[in-house]
Design brief:
Elements lengths: L29 H10 L2 H5 L18 H19 L3 H10 L8 H13 L7 H12 L13 H8 L24 H25 L4 H7 L1 H13 L5 H30 L5 H5 L10 H19 L5 H20 L12 H4 L1 H10 L3 H13 L3
Helix pairs in contact: 1-4, 3-4, 3-8, 3-11, 4-7, 4-8, 5-14, 5-16, 8-11, 8-13, 9-10, 10-11, 14-16, 14-17
The structure holds magnesium ion.
The site of magnesium ion (MG) has 5 residues, from α3.
Amino acid sequence: MPLPAECAVPATGPLAERRYPEPSHPYRLPYERDRARVLHARAFRRLAGKTQVFTNRYSDHFRSRLTHTMEVAQIARTIARTLGLNEDLTEALALVHDIGHPPFGHAGERALDDALREHGLRFDHNLHALRIVEHFEVRYAEFRGLNLTLAVREGIIKHSHDYTAAEYPELSQYFLDQFPPLEAQLIDLADEIAYTTADFDDGFESGILTLAPARAGVRLFERFYAPMLEKYPDTPEKLVFNEALKRMLNALVDDLIAETIRRVLSANATSLEAIRHAPARLVAFSPEMEDLRMEAKSFLYTHLYNAPELRREHEEPDRIIRMLFQAWVAHPERMPSPHPEEISEEGAPRVVADYIAGMTDQYILTQFETTIAQNG
Ligand code: MG
């Protein structure tokens, strides 16, 4: 059952405005064009070379940040369609949601943030994503950036985060005292669903996760694994696992859809304005499912993300990013153009961080090899 049509962001209107006005397209709506602009961005293509959880020393068929992004888009689009929301906007937001991530997954993000803190700055992947689409993508003769609609830029900075106008006056155009539309809210949880289930999958594939602790420690997994094992007693373990995992994913999506409808209707938030001014974000899991999801997530932290087998995935990025960052802050002229020229405006630490954040895993390893390892 979809929500009332007024809950969706309309295909045209103030949120579909661009910073630099452009003529409308004869047959493509504004958010369709945004989706295409993200898809054609260089930063989007680089997601193929960025780690999600596993670097390619384990295998080359695990998720990269690009395939993770496509899985988020797939899940988000299903939710948007079922709720009757704006699918084009949802998909554009899903495709752009991780575009600000540095190389080496979360370990890289932490390392870059630590390096910047020493200069009184922070690394924030939402703000970096905004800088990418506003500044670093240079594709058009008439303006810098992708000139995305206001709705997409607002969604970028409100991904899993609420900034205050006092702290971030430069973001004041993005309705900081209001919640984002449902299309943006649902990206956060589609992201959670995608990576929680995918990390189980890749975790088992890698051999780091094993069945017995997952069955004992993750009720949401066992809820589906036990009946699947009974139904397919002679089937290879991995296929029984797959049958359980896809049902776990479906259960999360089903719950999210039902609970979101329940919250929207019970808050009587049946217009975009009411959604923005509701007491809380309205896209949510039921309390019971939230509990089960948190259990699955903390299992992944203990048994996968912090597993000794992945220690190298955390320690190497830290060392590589720290050393490259220090080397370039000390000698910015060693970075290729145009980065050294940007220092007068932004300061060396920010310019170096922006340069590093854009790199793929392979590119930063090559930079480390040529800049640090060979110069001793
Ligand atoms: Mg993500």
